[in-house]
Write a structure and sequence with these properties.
Shape: globular
Strand content: 25-35%
CATH class: Alpha Beta
Helix content: 10-25%
Structural class: alpha+beta
Number of strands: 10
Number of helices: 6
Oligomer: single chain
Largest sheet: 8 strands, antiparallel
Number of domains: 1
Radius of gyration: 14 Å
Distance between the termini: 10 Å
Length: 149
C-alpha cells in the first residue's frame, strides 16, 4: 500500500541494510518501477539532505536528461566495471548492482561511501518515475517516522 507524504512523495515502506549488506525492495516498488529478477540496476548516491541512494535502470531513464548523463558514464551504463564498484563524477557516486530475489547487495565499501551502516533503516519512496529512492535522513524521513509508516 502506498502512502503520500508532503503531497508529492509516494512511500512504499521501510527497508534496512542487513548484516550481509542486503536490502529488500518492497514488492509494490518492484512492480511500480518494473524491476525484474536479475535486472542490472544503477545506484546513484543520494543528496546531502536526504542521504541514502536511488536505483534505476537504463530502460527507465531512456530519453530523459538522467539517462543522457548515465550514457556518458559508459563503464556504469554499459556495465563494463565489476558490479558494486563505485565511480564518482561531480561529487555523485554511481555503480551497478544485480537485483536478485527482490534484493540488492551492497558491498562494505559502497555502504561506507554512501555514509550508511549495516542495520540502518531506509525509507523507500518514489519522487519521480525515473528512480526509486532510499532515504536515510531528512525531513521526509522524519515525517514518515512520526506517522509510523
Amino acid at each position: 500500500m502506498k502512502h503520500t507524504i508532503l503531497g508529492k512523495n509516494e512511500i512504499f515502506g521501510w527497508s534496512s541494510i542487513s548484516e550481509e549488506g542486503k536490502i529488500i525492495i518492497p514488492d509494490n516498488a518492484l512492480k511500480d518501477f518494473n524491476f525484474q529478477h536479475d535486472n542490472k540496476l544503477i545506484l546513484i548516491s543520494g543528496s546531502k539532505s536526504h542521504g541514502g541512494f536511488s536505483l534505476t535502470t537504463m530502460e527507465n531513464t531512456a530519453d530523459s536528461p538522467l539517462g543522457m548523463n548515465l550514457k556518458k558514464l559508459r563503464s556504469v551504463s554499459k556495465y563494463e566495471m565489476p558490479a558494486g564498484k563505485i565511480m564518482t563524477r561531480n561529487g555523485t557516486a554511481y555503480c551497478w548492482l544485480w537485483l536478485t530475489n527482490g534484493m540488492i547487495e551492497l558491498k562494505p565499501g559502497v555502504i561506507h561511501h554512501l555514509g550508511l551502516q549495516k542495520k540502518d533503516k531506509l525509507l523507500v519512496l518514489k519522487q519521480s518515475s525515473l528512480v526509486l529512492s532510499f532515504y536515510s535522513k531528512g525531513p521526509v524521513f522524519k515525517e514518515a517516522e512520526k506517522i509510523k509508516i
